[in-house]
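Researcher: Here's my situation. A collaborator sent me these components and asked whether they could plausibly form a single complex. I don't have experimental data yet, so a predicted model of the whole assembly would be a useful starting point for our discussion.
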Amino acid sequence: MSAFRDDVEAMIPALRRYARALARDADIADDLVQDTLVRALRSERLFLGGDIRSWLYTILTNLNRNRRRSLARRPQFTPLLENNPDASGTEAEGRDIARALATLVEDQRSVLLLVMLEGLSYREVANIQGVPIGTVMSRLARARAHVKACLEGERPALRRVK
Amino acid sequence: MTDKNIPVTEDELHAYIDNELPAERHGDVEAWLVTHPDDAERVQSWRAMADALHARYDRVADEAVPKRLEIERLARQPRKWMVGAIAATLVAFIAGGAVGWMAHGAAAAPSAFQILTVDALDAHKLYVVEVRHPVEVPGSERTHLQQWLSKRCGYSVKAPELDGTGLKLVGGRLLPGPQGPAAFFMYEGPTGERFTLYTSRAKTKTAQMRYTAAENSGAMYWSEDGVGYVLSGPIDKDRLNQVARLVYDQTEKSGG
């Protein structure tokens, strides 16, 4: 197996984690990861070196944005429960953070997860979203304030549809 | 030692816990937190938030990778992907989008060229989200695609080479345009960004390149020798302009 494929394969667990938190549905999340991997494999020759990790996060983020855009055309149905709640002691806590994430707008959720869960730098996230670093920082600040308010039991403001 | 009198900003608090703060400012922020309990509480809540995220989602990374995501399998059958929920939502979207597209044709009143541009942007939005059937004829059959579209459109249609900017031809399709058939090509970059080129007969004189944007898509449009061109893509104007120039240069050479 090529070094390129090894590098892509090593990223699958992290991509699944990011996708699950981003899409909040296990099946849709794995669909996103699968599509990301297929595109990556297809574009092997277009990849001219650089950071494979950032590149894969970029593909997944774009795919999710396309998916959301197509969903935006029809009424949105948000499931009350995630479709496979993991049974564990921290389940209630996990549901709270998942619910708080659900109230964030797309770009803020993506920034929050890339920085706090995936440990990417502001610069990397700016490249992934195609925006200046200042925009990443303001999105992050707003996302943190919003999630904090949610976790502390304030009623989340009604989500604005883009 | 730096000046401790410079107040610590909220940006610096974020940078502090994200390891983005310059080392020389570290001590200042730590000293600041001792004397500013509100900020200390906020920083603490952000740490707890990160812990909660890891507690909830790290176990996903620890799960065994499902069979359908095995890299060997995907490399072997690259076409069997994206089924289930996403395909279903796309069907719903396509059905809804097509109705809106037809209705718009009846209501529009502006210039022929504007109608053409709006049609092109609609087609762009309709097809870039398509996963399984974005095109009728794949880019691997470039020659056949060009011959077919030239014959149906009644002028020489060429799919420009955009490999130089990292865009590969996905393929193309025939569409109804405002004044006759339209040729439609789709390109895709390494990160999944998609551009489309829409060309059709337009009863306008040569017009220079213009830019327009709607929702999340942008378009550069121009016309030459009775043919209108619309290049649509993500809303990044510089990138659109760069790709449009490349298209323009090649259509000029081929005689439009």
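Model: Some features of this prediction you could bring to your collaborator: Chain B touches chain A through 57 residues (CB under 8 Å). The beta strands of chain B are 137-138, 168-177, 180-188, 194-201, 207-214, 217-224, 227-234.
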